């Protein structure tokens, strides 16, 4: 017979955990995602498709002639099962209740889970998978004009204007925030760069800073991309068999993202344990949809 967390509803914990996870998820939504609430085993694969670039034709000269379109199947192997596990002793459960769980477990769990996914995503960004370098200079020189040049690089690579994102280390984000051309955007109705250190869209890019961006190449400080550069697929881990604990699932209706929360009592340790986890995989999508930023 399983124990419970002081009468706490595990489904409520799962749903609140998902809400917290989604608040940490903007970076992941930068890329092409395939979220699913169905159950999968580690090692299974998800197949998705990305469209190849097309060129416009002169209909006035040649009429409504059909042009060929191509989509490429991309397989993402669900080879990663990561998350966060927290243990509470009997006294903590009795004294703390749900507020303690939210404060101690949910936000660290969400942050740890998102960071695990992002670490695996950015591990793909190297000189082999993505050859384009759109900026190679100093961090101090990174400004709005640099972002305009990155926009040109992606356009030259035949990327659409929609959905472009710039993800940079804090040093480059700060350089942009100090740019007088960006601070002067108060004239267009926003003073967020000056009052909140929140940058507006710059030359078609949504700008995000991420301090844990790993340098898979020396001095790599960021990327400019469109969603099809990297593919992310997630599924729910398979349900445990002949197990004495409880399992709850929460699914976001808008994105389809699902997480699994498990609860069980470890008699050997005398702890009530909670886990939040995802089964997922990441893969390179279209290499021409990303250009790297090198800054010393």
List the helices and strands and how they pair.
Layout: H1 10-23, E1 32-40, E2 45-51, H2 59-62, E3 71-77, E4 80-89, H3 90-122, E5 133-137, H4 144-156, E6 165-168, H5 170-178, H6 180-183, H7 192-195, E7 206-209, E8 220-225, E9 230-237, E10 246-251, E11 258-266, E12 271-284, E13 290-295
Parallel strand pairs: 1-9, 5-13, 6-7
Antiparallel strand pairs: 2-3, 4-12, 6-8, 8-13, 9-12, 10-11, 11-12
Helix pairs in contact: 1-3
Describe the structure.
It is built from seven helices and 13 strands. By secondary structure, it is of the alpha+beta class. The chain folds into two domains: 10-50 and 74-123 and 232-282, no CATH class; 133-229 and 287-295, 2-Layer Sandwich (hypothetical protein PF0899 fold), CATH 3.30.2320. The strands form three sheets. Strands 1, 4, 9, 10, 11 and 12 form a six-stranded mixed β-sheet that branches. A five-stranded mixed β-sheet has the order 5-13-8-6-7. Strands 2-3 form a two-stranded antiparallel sheet. α1 packs parallel to α3 (90-122). The relative contact order is 0.26. The mean pLDDT is 82.
